Amino acid sequence: MDNWENVIEEYKNCNDITNLLKHAEQILHEELASFEIEWMVSCLLKEPVDLLRIINSKHREVECSKLIADSLKLLTDAVDKYSAFLEQYYEDIVQVCVLPHYSVPRQHALSCLSVVSKHSPLAAHDFLRHLASLEQASVCLAPLATLVGTICEYHPDVVVDEISKVWRVFLNLLDSNKLSSSARGAVLAGAGGVLRHFSEDLPTTELRTFGAHVLSASHLPRCRQVCIRLLSEHSDVFGSQACSDERVRGALWEAVRAGDAQRAEHAQRALLALYVALTGTSDTVRVQVRYTSVLIL
């Protein structure tokens, strides 16, 4: 942050937005004091940079696609890390994100909307349009799935009347054999957003179908983390399906031993639920998951 003043002065002198964005991205990942965050945000979104105006004025210029993509990525990271300092800008941020962007900038715009939607209903205003785009998506499928799922998770009142359609869209996408592993992981995660509030409203047969998709995808490296999280958070939905699958239990044990704290925690919770289901009891059984053993008391 010590160099921020020099970066701003250099920008004023030569108007090099590319260099400024590079330095801003680096500074954003430092540990900043509140006044430093406020100063940086003010410089970027007001004077002298006015990044939102730049995006709005240049988003149709194909030669500016990388600039717009980098700008939107910076906004995404800023909202993700310092949401409280950007609240007053959410409406303007949403407006630039829903502009008609080229493919790569659009991916970052959708990611930015997903992050904003965790903090504000403003990002959910165009939900039906986002859902229609997801249903017909040939590009940007993963960020669209993430956005729709995030809105379902954080703003259930917005989606309640459309939840059957949302669920069918996710299931239809999962039925496709053309999805890349990363896109499949995003669709699974998006469907998890639906389960957060609406699992009891969905048909049992469709929940079992989704459970089968989770179990199948859990063996794909790029889907494994989201599948572990789904198994840990929604064991009541399809835990009984998973408990007899030795490959799934093996993948969970591998995650427990992998060393990543958050992933290991999700895997431990999932294993706990699966081994409880495996015993056939739901009242007094306690399963303690360790790194090398399972103890059923």
UniProtKB/TrEMBL annotation:
SUPFAM superfamilies with a match to the protein in the record: ARM repeat (SSF48371)
InterPro entries (UniProt xref): ARM-like (IPR011989), ARM-type_fold (IPR016024)
Domain of life, per lineage: Eukaryota
Protein name per the record: Uncharacterized protein
